[in-house]
Each structure stands twice: as C-alpha cells, then as structure tokens.
TrEMBL record:
Enzyme Commission numbers on file: 3.4.-.-
Major enzyme class: hydrolase
Gene3D superfamilies: Penicillin V Acylase, Chain A
Source species: Dongia sedimenti
The name this protein goes by in its record: Dipeptidase
PANTHER family per record: LD30995P, SECERNIN
C-alpha cells in the first residue's frame, strides 16, 4: 500500500519542503543510483503488465526520450504479478521526488478493467517521472499524456505524490481502462499524508482552477454511470475511490504534524523522520524508508535523500547524495526475499545444460556480501519479540545517529561544494561516495551489533520460542 507524507516549506524549521514515506511490499528492496543516460533514435521501452498479472494485460513498447535524468531510487522484485524490477519512489537530479501509493478505485471500475489493458503501470509511471520530469507539474503532465496516448495498466487503482522545491501534486490513476485520472496541487502551507492516495471535492464549476487537473472525461463519465448528479459536489473519493474519506492513520499523522508546525520552531528533520519511523505506522510491511529534502543546492550533485534499507523502526536514516558514484554492495539487490530466487542457483552447471532460467541474475560477488535488508530485518524481529525492553533503546540509538549526521551535513555539503567550485568535480564525487558509503556501512555494522546484543539478552532473559504468532506494535493502519 505504501505511505507518503508531504510537508510544505512554510511549515519547516529550515524553510524547505519535504517528501517522505516508505514502500509497503514484502519482496526484496535495494538502493540504486541510476546515471543520466543518452538514448539512440528509435529506441523503445517496454511498459505495462502481462497476462499473468493479478489484473491481466498486454505489454507495450513506447518511445524512449533522447536523455533520461540521473536519479536515486529504491527498487523491489515483486508486486501483484507486475513485471520486475519495480520502483515506487526516489529523487532526480532536477529536484523532483515521487512516491507511489496505492489508491483503490470503486469496485465497478475494477470490474470494467479489460484483460487486454495496455499502457504504463504504476511503477513505470514513477520511473518515467524520475527519468523525465524537471518539475512536479511536468510529472503530472507526463502521467496525463501517457494515459491519454497509451492507456494505463493497473491492479485496481493507484496514486503518485510528486513534489519539487515549490509545490507537490497528488495524482490518482483510476482502474477500468477508461483513462480516468485527477490531480490536486499542494503548496507551501500544506501537510498531506497519503495512505491511500486521496482527493476530495474537485471544484468542477471552475475548470481552470490552479489547484486541480483531471482527465477530460472525468465528469462526463461519472454522470453517464449515474455516480454524480448535476449540482452536487464532485467528491472524487466518493465517486471514483473507496468512499471512506481520509483514513484514521492519515488523520492522526496529519494532526500530529500540524501540532508540530504550530510550535515556534516548526517542523524539523527529526520530526519528519519520526513520522516515518513511529511504530504506530511502521512495521514489517514497510520495505524501506525515505525522507527527501526538496531544495535547489548550488550543484545538482548535492541533492540527497535520507534512506533506510528496511522500515525505519529498525534502521537509521543515512544520507545518499546524487553525486555518489555508487552505493555499497550490501545495499544492492541480494537474494533475500527476491522473487524467484528459491528455484535458482549461483552455479552454471544447470544453465549450461539447457536451463538458463536456473541461473540467478544477482552477481555472485554481491551475494557474497552481507544483505543490509536481511541484517536489519533480523534486528526488527528481535526488537518486536520484546518491544518494551528493546524498542526504546534501539529508537534512541537511531535518533542519536541521525542527530549527528544532520549536524555534519552542512560541512559535508560545503566541502563538496568547494571542490566543485574549484573545478574538481571528480574529487567531489569521490568524497561524496566515500562519505555516503562510510555512513551506510557504519549504520549496517551498528545494526549487526545491536542484533547480536539483543539476541544474547533475549536468550538469557526470555528465551526464544520455536513457534507462536508474530509480534508487532499496534498500528493505526
């Protein structure tokens, strides 16, 4: 389902906007920095879903653009039969960030979805925004043009939260194969949580309203189906969504952030990290965590996001810079929880005898390193076994680390900035890579140490039962 949170720049201590959240899928997750790429004439990309997807469809080839942007993203290996690898969030070199968040369509629309549906799926749209959009508005227009020209391949409805330093947009794509979508603009004074993606009343009586965009047939189709009567408010959630309004978890976290925004110090980075970490919202289903500061640094290489390899309740946020050459091997794709790996080998014997699908696509050299996701998941399960004893300790440790990293960040940026200004861009990239790798690996080492310590104390104090229901904090959603 995933979770997104946007905070407008007028409400933050540092005067910049933020987009935060996590992906909510059970398969493997890994961190990637995709370089800017140039593409040849006539190059095509494959988008959509296959006949084996939960809502089946047909793959489609669409034209690639001449150049795609450098971006940081988290990818994962499986969701509802949609072709992998998948992505639902990240940041590009132009300062555009995106989060993909489930948003179900009404049952009648889902039932209308043709088994031959075509067009980009939810992950394709997130990736295309990261690769092509220079502003959040461009991201909305890109999604609209893709749906209009190629259609939309869905699994029951979805949404995207797209943000840049000046504004953000909630975009909801409807199921049904009717090319229905709507978008709402968020600004400097906005706080918006998405889970699921939500749009309320659209002022259709003002077609040129600056805060809303929508498909040309959005209103006429609703009227034709008898879902909207002339003169009634056009409540998008009631007409095209689940009709439940804003969910309880959304109301809770938005109220918490509004209260913090009302303080003299407003909302700080630690508050936003808390909003992604709090055990009321974050548990085993959270595949990773992200907090993206939305600003325009003097050099694009200095854009960054804060990343956790699993849900932030069990891992600390560490900075990942656009200018880094690579991420540590431990944070790349491993076999742990990767779809299909249970039937594959890291051995050529079967592949050479006519079974190429038996060979794992994951490099053996990468698999020889620790899996950061597996290390932090182990810690998560140890902590949840005895939450009262260990969760406060782990949380306090992560908060202390993040405080130190946040305090160091201005000096790190100034150092890289000085190198770039001196025409030493390569040195700046080396420096950012060294720093980013060091802090990610330090977090991993600490996660391992905490897991070893907590396991030893668990065995001594409580024992480790061989069976029983999984334990976790009580969550609002």
């Amino acid at each position: 389902m995933s979770y997104g949170l946007y905070i407008g720049k007028n409400l933050t201590a540092d005067g910049i906007a933020y987009l935060a959240g996590y992906g909510d899928e059970p398969s493997s997750h890994w961190l990637e920095i995709e370089p800017r790429r140039h593409h040849g004439p006539g190059e095509m990309i494959t988008v959509g879903v296959t006949p084996s997807a939960d809502l089946p469809g047909l793959l489609l080839q669409i034209p690639q653009v001449d150049e795609t942007a450098r971006h940081i993203r988290v990818s994962y290996s499986y969701y509802k039969g949609v072709p992998a690898p998948l992505t639902n969030g990240g940041l590009n070199e132009y300062g555009v960030a995106v989060r993909d968040i489930w948003s179900t369509s009404r049952a009648e629309l889902i039932a209308m979805t043709p088994p031959t549906q075509t067009g980009p799926n939810y992950s394709d749209l997130a990736r295309l925004v990261l690769e092509r959009a220079r502003t959040a508005r461009e991201g909305v227009e890109l999604i609209a043009s893709m749906i209009a020209e190629h259609g939309y391949s869905d699994y029951g409805g979805n949404s995207h939260l797209i943000a840049d330093p000046d504004e953000a947009w909630v975009v909801i794509e409807c199921s049904g194969g009717r090319k229905l979508w709507a978008a709402e603009r968020l600004g400097a004074d906005s706080i918006r949580a998405s889970r699921p993606g939500f749009i309320g009343v659209i002022p259709i009586e003002t077609p040129d309203h600056p805060d809303f965009l929508y498909a040309p047939n959005l209103v006429s189709f609703a009227r034709a189906q008898g879902w909207h009567a002339d003169g009634a408010p056009f409540d998008f959630n009631k007409i095209y969504g689940d009709g439940k309004g804003r969910w309880a978890g959304v109301r809770w976290i938005e109220a918490e952030m509004q209260a913090r925004a009302a303080r003299p110090e407003k909302i700080g980075l630690a508050d936003i990290m808390w909003a992604v970490r709090t055990e009321k919202l974050t548990g085993d289903t959270a595949g990773y965590g992200q907090v993206v500061p939305l600003h325009h640094p003097r050099h694009d290489a200095l854009r960054y996001l804060w990343h956790t390899q699993v849900g932030a309740v069990a891992a600390p946020f560490a900075p990942v810079f656009m200018g880094m050459r690579e991420v540590p091997e431990e944070f790349r794709q491993h076999r742990y929880l990767t779809s299909g790996e249970a039937s594959r080998f890291m051995d050529l014997r079967h592949a050479r005898s006519g079974r190429p699908d038996s060979l794992s696509p994951i490099p053996q050299s990468i698999e020889a390193t620790r899996s950061a996701a597996q290390v932090f998941k182990r810690l998560l399960y140890l902590v949840f076994q005895n939450q009262a004893a260990f969760l406060p300790e782990v949380t306090a440790t992560w908060v202390a680390i993040e405080r130190r990293l946040a305090q160091a960040q201005p000096l790190v940026i100034r150092t890289a900035e000085t190198l770039i200004d001196a025409d030493e861009s390569d040195l700046a990239r080396d420096y950012l890579t060294y720093y980013g790798r060091t802090e990610l690996l330090s977090a991993l080492a600490l996660g391992e140490s905490l897991a070893e310590s907590i396991e030893a104390r668990t065995r001594a104090l409580y024992g480790i039962p061989s069976q029983g229901e999984p334990l976790s904090p009580e969550q609002i959603w």
